[in-house]
Amino acid sequence: IIILIFGACSVTTEEDETSYGTSDGTASAPMELTVGTAKSGGIARNGYSYYKFTTSATGAGNYKLAIASMTVTDGWGSSAVRTYLYSNSGMTSSSILDSESCAASCTLYFDYENLDASKSYYLKLSAYGTITYSLTVSKGNSEGSKNNPVELTLGTAHSGTIDNIAANWEYGYSYYKFTTASADNYTLSMNN
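and the corresponding structure tokens:
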């Protein structure tokens, strides 16, 4: 005697897809950030968000990223978000300028790296959980960059600043240049 029993079983589950959050931008189409303007955003659970910002024609110098009003859901690890700053849209390891992380709302200074004027920079943020926040990229106080130093005029005082001058391990820099009219000895004076 052979007895065959056939049956079918179907299991249906409902899952709220929004519980995993949403990410901003993609690697090929990053979301634009305007320097000095806050932008609300987020990162899907254990995912990435992509942003880009462009410095102004007179915007050579250091920049900072404020991550405010951060909320973390289903977080794990000692950091909530990791940031990567890149000098080109390919976001390759050879174009990375800085990588930092924080566990709560914070301000990151990109190692006080001076950025060039009129150039786009790219941010990739990764989450350890589902995260929402407000991002603001803003100009710091250091001036110029290696490629875009501030032009000084001989005989004319210039009021400048340098961020983080008293740091133990991350120093800020300002970059300047001047042009001489002839071969001679020149003196640079600095006052506080």
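(Above: one complete record from the training split.) The chain has no helices and twelve strands.
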